[in-house]
Amino acid sequence: MKRRLSDANDIPSPSTSRPRHHDRPDNAGDDDKQLQLALDLSRRDAQLERMSEQDQIQEAIRQSMLHQEAAAPPPIPAAPNTTSPRPPKAATPLSPEAKLQPIAASRPIASSTKIAPLFASPAKAKPRLGDHGDDGDSRSSAATADAIDWDHTLLFSQEPGRTINRLDGSLDLEYWPGWLLSHPDPDRGRKVLMRWMLNSIQWHRVTYTRPGGFTVRTPRYTTTFGRDETGAPDSAYDKPPKPFPAPLLKIKLQVERLTGASFNSVIVNFYADGNDSISYHSDDEAFLGPNPTIASLTLGSSRDFYMRRKAPAGVDVAPPTKPSGSKGSGPAATRPTEKMVLNDGDLLVMRGKTQAEWEHSVPKRAGNVGGRINLTFRRCVSKRGTDNFLRYNRGGVGDTWRWNGTKMVPGKGGV
Ligand SMILES: O=C(O)CCC(=O)C(=O)O
Ligand SMILES: [Fe+2]
């Protein structure tokens, strides 16, 4: 996973500008009608989907019986890589040349779409949400997830999204601002999900020392759920795939319904403050297949999301010579950029040639920047790439961390 190792040289932004919110009202106030509509629709969706989720649970149980583990094989050595520092620039609004068009409310799911059989294992105990001390790995987060009625808690906007299309589909985005709704009730809406994830996830920080003593520290916390579509048994992986916890499965199904794409994996990134970041990269690894659809959901604090083309406008992007694409050609200043601010609840979908031709990043920011979680849904097609990906984002080369209610602390425990 070259890109995940490329952040070591990131330097804090000299910019003191804070991420700005779009002029989107918080729907806790005068949007009661819209919220009511969303609640009704979300209840109806829940009923419609309950059947298919039940089917998936059955399938997951069947699969897990098929995949009874043998001994794990020895780990395959990883091939780390680094890039040079790139100082982030100040935020600007969406480029004027970006074409913004409404998107039809939802695309039908292709008949060939397979819904991956992934689900959290049944609960044993039921601790209260966020109720844990420094007691190591005694928590059962799957139980916490099961204790919450996610159908009732997670609410999705029915507003149409927008397309952002530049240079003849070179950049091909769909954007639903505020797709995951907030709610005035503290037990509902996206805050509950954010709290559940912080409290329940076993986080990892990719950190390792290269030969020669240079330590690479990836500036964010990660984990990943799901598995590739090859049907390889758990024993074939150095870090066996973890099933989707209930709330993330629920969201995955909703994103699939909205976009018509299908996903079998999610990477969860936690940026604890403005010093956490992800440097310019593309999600163009071979194990995601050609022209992958990537869906990214933001929770918590707003952060800038910068994109830049790998070549100047009018210049073809050279086909990557390596599986994990080129870093671009021509001076960065001559390449088209797209700058967005991603806010709490926003869903951004990158399609088509976007990964092949553009890079994206979440730059560091100075000042008092709060925590942000990003869920990035993808479809993994090969076992080998998934294995490497799991190793990097599931503690194979780094420490384990967890949230103690206030801050990240070293420790184990959680899904
Ligand atoms: O946090 C984000 O919005 C981007 C994350 C990302 O690019 C990735 O995980 O590949
Ligand atoms: Fe990415």
From TrEMBL:
Residues 1-97, 121-141, 219-241, 314-337 are annotated as: Disordered. Substrate binds at D284. It comes from the Eukaryota. InterPro entries: AlkB-like, AlkB-like_sf, ALKBH2, Oxoglu/Fe-dep_dioxygenase_dom. Residues 262-381 form the Fe2OG dioxygenase domain. Residues 23-34, 41-53, 128-138, 226-241 have a biased composition (Basic and acidic residues). Coiled coil: none annotated. One of its GO terms (biological process) is DNA alkylation repair. GO terms for molecular function: broad specificity oxidative DNA demethylase activity; cytosine C-5 DNA demethylase activity; ferrous iron binding. 2-oxoglutarate binds at N269, Y271, H281, H360, R372, T376, R378. Gene3D superfamilies: Alpha-ketoglutarate-dependent dioxygenase AlkB-like. This is Fe2OG dioxygenase domain-containing protein. The lineage of its organism: Eukaryota, Fungi, Dikarya, Basidiomycota, Ustilaginomycotina.
